[in-house]
Fold this protein.
Amino acid sequence: MKELNLKKSDSDILKQIQELKKQGKIIVFTNGVFDIIHPGHIELLKKAKSFGDILIVGLNSDKSVKINKGDKRPIFSFEERKKLLLAIEFTDFVIGFDDKTPINLISTIIPDILVKGGDYNPEDVVGREIVEENGGKLILINLVSEYSTSKIIEKCLLK
């Protein structure tokens, strides 16, 4: 199933997600850049998947990463990051977005559960209101604090 997701268009994936919702599957959504995958990412994805049946990762496009992180990022291209995320057993679908935030993607999917790292305040989580207005909920997950892509990049530059 996942190998096919690399080749499917986002609109085909969205249709498949709607079908899974009709089957009563609990849809979980999280998002991020996932530029250099580290143990903190794995833990977040594992915990996120535990809250439902299907885990969708909204992945910042290269354009979106540059908007949020600057011209020197991403380290890995969108397609490379997508492949890495789909190789992780907890991830069912990866869908890209070009905007600064995934608000349009969340509005389209309307997941049952929205997951973000515990470094966010609930009122600051993009898409929270949409999810909650549709009967879903926000779950904040404590982060593995020693891991950060930015810190990893800094460490590599110092060596």
